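Good morning C.,

I know you're traveling, so I'll keep this short. The sequence:
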Amino acid sequence: MKHFILPAFLGVANILINSSEEYMNIIYHVVFSAIAIFYVYLSYVELRNSLWVTNPKINVLEKQFVLLKDWTVLILIICILAIVRLLVCLFIDLFSGTVSYGNNYLWITAVFSCVLFFKVLLTPEILFGYQLLNDKLIEQRTAEIVFGEFWIFSKEINVSNIQDLKLKEKIDDHLSTYIDNIEMIAFSQNWFRNPSVTLGDLALKLGVPKSHLTYVFKYHSKISFIEFKKMVRIQDAVRLIENDYLYSNTLDSLAKEVGFSSYNPFFTSFKEIVRVVPQDYNKKLKQI
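The tokens, ready to paste straight into the viewer:
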């Protein structure tokens, strides 16, 4: 509240004291200009120290942090331009002998305000809040997850290990992205067709520490990484069968194509997951 004292005092003084004298007008112009410049500078210092040059905390979404920085820069620039317009008008009045009280060229400030207004309308993360937008994106990605029944998206999990607690702080805000990227690699790029692929290889492919993926499969997956590989490969085999792969290839070839070392583990896994053997599944497709 102390920041209101000086402007309020000057406003009252302007009413009570005869301001018709030229030197009084000069004093008021200089003082109010100094106040405007001071608060622009104060805003800059505050934003620089508390936001622009600091790193986001682990539990703060990185995108939200970048968004806040960009918006504060935009708003500060608009405020500076609006104040420059006001100062120019005041000094034009001072040197021309007119009295407009800074009302000239108000359309310039109106343009700045309209730019800001439409920018807000066109930016959903500002209009609705970044967290709400992020929740909607997570909901949409979750709906598109192939193995949705195997993933645990809830962050309310019991973690007693100190190292895992530290990983939880880093991973929680990015959990859906981790799962989405894992499935994208699995199904869009057929990366699991490599028979020797490991969790470390997947971490390297995604550009994340192996410990992060270990945490995801430990706390947010109902199946292990080995079981996940098997599920992905059988899903791949089903897709190939549906695309007439067996029309010109053998089952042994299919097993090796999707990443199994031999036919026997492929046959066992296929029957376990699809509930029928590969030959019967292929026959059923032909009957449809």
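Safe travels,
E.
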